[in-house]
From TrEMBL:
Disulfide bonds join 413-425, 433-442, 481-490. The keyword Repeat applies. This is LOW QUALITY PROTEIN: netrin-G2. Pfam families: EGF_laminin (PF00053), EGF_LMN_ATRN (PF24973), Laminin_N (PF00055). Gene3D superfamilies: Galactose-binding domain-like, Laminin. Residues 37-288 form the Laminin N-terminal domain. Involved in controlling patterning and neuronal circuit formation at the laminar, cellular, subcellular and synaptic levels. Promotes neurite outgrowth of both axons and dendrites. Residues 1-19 form the signal peptide.
């Protein structure tokens, strides 16, 4: 009885160390012989630091060029340690954050010291994989000589195009970020994906006592799966049902923004700045490739991680159906129902409905039109139209770099409303322009025209239609004439010969001066005694 219980327990342990969702398919025997059964599947967790590429900013932040001396917070008056980039034994380049340390030899990246205080000592460490990954355990960063007093961990899910904060770290969260200090264990299931500031990893406890800064993944999983992660089914159920939960653990890039180094539990001592710097010996990133539950293997190919897609899917993350397997639109596999999930396999086009109507994945419904005797796709999506959804709707054109079954096969014409005759375009996206307009979208004017909610012929310009008599051309729209001229090109004097004009107002200053001088001369001539 007891033995049996122990055995069952052992089986259970085996199953949980093997992990769920490790098989994409298996051969099962039925009455009609052996058939393949397909399951939702995912690759095993791996140490992603082995595949990580690192960039450190600003460029001169790594110590040793030129060589410099430093000391430690615990030994502040023994500044005899040296960092020298040209000496392999004394160099501290970025790759020492991800190396395999042999024979217990500690290797670490180190920055210059805070010699330019009070200017802040800032450094960014960007880590990228060119692959979507999902965290499976805590990120752990090991700092030699003390953990930073202020730091931010950022993540990107789109290969570095956009970034978001992942967690804030400070010895005083209110002071540094105006955020209340939290711990992951303060979080409830409803706010588990909240971005928090924590003081847990930034306070001074001695640089040897506590070197690690973590981004807690295990503690977050534990909220659903229990403290020893014994109930993973519950976690996987939440992964499927709770909005944003899977995305929270997903990333393609990470960035550490180091904002203030360890201070040794006191204020900055300006007379010894050689003891302030950052030094990281290891960055651990336990994660698995995100394959949308369509692959159990993820291999390095041409330098990048790549899911080995099953279920007739393809793409770096198995995020598409293979060509010819788009009878219905692509779906990620599902963790539910436990234990084996649902593979949401891509199926060969045409097979489910029985008829042979290819809709290139833009529709999953066909209908027979009696009087034409044809089968046609119904409600083509993605701006397609036609019997097989093989054309683009009016106002859209064919994306030359996309397959017919691609969701982005039709691109909006985007014709400029003012410059074009209508909102349709030709096969390469060119719109039909009104007179004077040009450009693929008709949002430009031909030479000799100016843009003002459409193209209009120039009134004036620098070549053919010059403003005359000192007039200046305003945006090709009108001549701004000097006061004594008028007309479209200022070609007409205001005072035409023979007309009576107000002389004073139109008198040129130079002419006025000349007149005044002549009068004075005359006066002098009459007054002078002969
Ligand atoms: C670090 O990255 C942030 C965000 O892109 C940027 O604003 C900052 O200037 C960078 N700092 C350094 C030292 O390069
Ligand atoms: C990223 O990976 C994809 C797919 O493996 C590859 O086509 C692309 O060239 C890679 N990009 C970089 C910058 O390495
Ligand atoms: C999360 O929710 C719990 C209980 O609902 C609350 O006590 C806690 O303060 C919340 N945490 C954050 C960071 O909002
Ligand atoms: C993928 O397509 C091939 C060829 O039609 C088929 O033999 C195989 O069973 C399909 N795989 C899945 C998981 O449906
Ligand atoms: C055209 O198709 C390619 C391949 O799917 C896609 O990457 C690109 O974004 C599409 N272009 C537009 C403008 O939608
Ligand atoms: C679309 O119009 C542009 C400009 O008139 C022309 O160069 C291009 O060849 C046309 N494309 C097609 C497919 O007709
Ligand atoms: Ca190391």
């Amino acid at each position: 009885m007891l033995l049996q219980a122990v055995f069952l327990l052992l089986l259970h342990c085996l199953a949980s160390t093997l992990g769920q969702y490790e098989l994409c398919k298996s051969l099962v025997s039925t009455d009609e012989g052996s058939v393949w059964e397909h399951y939702a599947c995912q690759p095993k967790p791996a140490s992603m630091k082995d595949y990580m590429r690192i960039k450190v900013d600003p460029p001169g932040i790594t110590c040793g060029n030129p060589p410099e001396r430093f000391c430690t917070l615990e030994n502040p008056y023994l500044c005899s340690d040296e960092c020298d980039a040209s000496n392999p034994d004394l160099a501290h380049p970025p790759q020492l954050m991800q190396d395999k340390e042999r024979n217990g030899l500690l290797t670490y990246w180190q920055t210059v010291t805070w010699r330019r205080h009070p200017e802040p000592l800032l450094a960014n460490i960007t880590m990228f994989w060119n692959k979507s990954l999902e965290l499976t355990d805590d990120i752990q960063i090991t700092f030699e000589y003390g953990r930073p007093t202020i730091m931010i961990l950022d993540k990107s899910m789109d290969h570095g195009r956009s970034w978001q904060p992942y967690q804030y770290y400070a010895d005083d969260c209110i002071d540094a970020f105006n955020l209340p200090p939290k711990r992951v264990r303060d979080l409830s299931p409803a706010n588990i994906t909240r971005v928090i500031c924590t003081e847990q990893y930034s306070r001074w406890v001695g640089s040897k006592n506590e070197k690690n800064v973590k981004f807690e993944v295990r503690a977050r999983f534990a909220v659903f799966a229990g403290p020893r992660l014994q109930n993973m089914d519950s976690l996987y159920t939440r992964m499927e049902s709770m909005k944003g939960l899977r995305d929270f653990f997903t990333f393609t890039n990470l960035r550490l923004r180091l904002l203030r180094p360890a201070l040794g539990g006191t204020y900055v001592q300006r007379d010894n700045l050689l003891k302030y710097f950052y030094a990281i010996s290891n960055i651990e990133v336990p994660a698995r490739c995100k394959c949308n539950l369509h692959a159990s293997q993820c291999l390095l190919q041409d330098g990048d991680l790549q899911c080995q897609c099953e279920h007739n899917t393809t793409g770096q993350d198995c995020q598409r159906c293979k060509k010819g397997f788009k009878a219905k639109s692509w779906k990620a596999g599902s963790y539910l129902p436990v234990p084996n999930g649902n593979p949401n396999t891509c199926t060969i086009a045409g097979s489910p409905s029985g008829s042979n109507c290819e809709c290139y994945g833009h529709s999953n419904r066909c209908s027979y039109i009696d009087y034409l005797n044809i089968v046609t796709c119904v409600s083509c999506k993605h701006n397609t139209r036609g019997q097989n959804c093989q054309h683009c709707r009016l106002g859209y054109f064919r994306n030359a770099s996309a397959e017919l079954d691609d969701e982005s096969v039709c691109i909006e014409c985007n014709c400029n409303q003012m410059g074009s005759v209508h909102d349709r375009c030709n096969g390469t996206g060119f719109c039909q322009c009104k007179d004077g307009a040009t450009g693929a979208k008709c949002d430009d004017c031909l030479p000799g025209y100016y843009w003002k909610q459409g193209c209009y012929p120039n009134v004036c310009d620098e070549e053919m239609l010059l403003c005359q008599n000192g007039g200046t051309c305003y945006q090709s729209q009108k001549c701004i004439c000097p006061p004594e001229f008028k007309g479209v090109l200022c070609q007409q004097p205001r005072c035409e010969a023979g007309k009576d004009c107000n002389a004073a107002s139109s008198l040129h200053p130079a002419t006025a001066t000349l007149l005044l001088c002549t009068l004075l001369a005359l006066l002098l001539a009459t007054l002078s005694p002969h």
